[in-house]
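Backbone Fold Data
Goal — fold tokens
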Amino acid sequence: MRLLVAVGNMALSHAIQGTLSNARYTVTAVDPKNLVSPASAYETVISVLHKHAADPDEGPFDIAILGSPDLVAAAKSAQPSIRILLLATTTLRGTAADAARAASIRVNAAPGAAGRGEDVEPSDRPVSRPIDSARPDATLRLPFSDTELLSYVELLARDSAGAGPETMMIRGDLTLDLTSRKAYFASTHKAMPLSRLEFDILETLVRARGRFVGLDELQHSAGGSYFTQEGLVRRGVESLDRKLRNAGLALTKRDDWYRVL
């Protein structure tokens, strides 16, 4: 799996490269100095994609991680098949980029920071470029952790292989593999030991996107009626909560309503 990283912040770019390299991905990074202006960034990304696609020892990239929405059109025009993960801001948290947080704050606070290639206003786009109608395949909002970054890369890798992005659900450090019916928290390889019922409950809670879910809805998602499944589902919620707490996550409870953030 070949990945291209084109992020204008030096510390952030290095942090992402380190995370991906440690996960055994083949990573090529554009020098952030070549992403200073929208024009040079646009041409650089196209040039790198064309160069690698034409080199039999390199080959085309599978995924591009971009730090500016202005680069999406460039990547898609140079290689339509590439999957794009767009970073929404300029800082990371956690083990991936403790240094990047401080560096990004300094960069964005400095005079003229808006012209350094991250959040370029549409009026700054070179007039010779068409209006960007391309869209990223996924957007990762910062701050984020190593786990979340790697989960999104896995998601796009599956999509590139034809499996489709609907096979995974990602909510921060919590990842659900809907194909293997496994759940991961703060890990991309060690699954939590969930039963079928516990996984069904967790999937329903994750799909709710922070909304409180009632016991009757959880029972329905588990495939049973309210009267025959109430005790079983209630015990499933309790055991799920214990396992999530052991992993470092917890359910929020309000009477017989539950949610996971």
